[in-house]
Known about the structure:
This protein is mostly helical. The protein is built from 13 helices and no strands.
Amino acid sequence: MQQLLEIMQRLRDPENGCPWDVEQDFSSIAPYTIEEAYEVADAIARGNMADLKDELGDLLFQVVFHAQMASEQGSFNFKEVHQAVCEKMLRRHPHVFANLKIKDAAHQKQVWEDYKAEERKHKGEHSLMDGIPAGMAELQRSVKLQKRAAKVGFDWPCAGPVMEKFDEELAEMRMAIASGDKDAMEDELGDLFFVATNLARQLDIDPGTALRRGNAKFERRFRAMEDAVGGQDGLECMGLEAMEALWQKIKQTTDQVDANKAFQQGLVKHE
């Protein structure tokens, strides 16, 4: 760890460091921090441990980079970051490091949330909506907002009413499209997304994971279409109807392959 800290200090040296690293600030580095976190998630999704090791290193470097910049301006250093997270984990796990008795995972989750709520009060945050980062990915942020509201009972009891709400919002979306009002369409589409994330939460599904799965499925099928007709040029020569027919054929094939793979892995049972 000390070697990594020294490497970062050298990179940020105004005289002998890397010109690119020297000119960076928190705002310019933040997008890279987010990108590295996504690359960690991607390595996990692919089950590639070699890539995961590499990406975790890149993510750790981001922490070191921010800590170094903060140290240069006298705000905090890496040692303080390390100490703060250790204290936080000790504080939030009294059932492990103190004498609190925990009944089960649900009780532990409630204790965790209670500690976080207390910490927010100490920070001067009083609304349940306080402390939710504006820069968080919007799908995850909507889930966070909903979870906070659910703490006081402002929540759907189950997935059924959420589906009804989705149908209601879909009808309003159709009306907005019919009106031709771009602002109304954007507003109603936002409501649709928000209800969709609420449905994901009710079903205990991470919406980001679900969307990544949908994206991967689309990419897999589209690549199969390209392979079937010799690439982009082959698709460009086809009309929309022909492409749709090919898509449906590819869909049936890839769905069967996915089902067979799931069966072989024991994820589904043969009827």
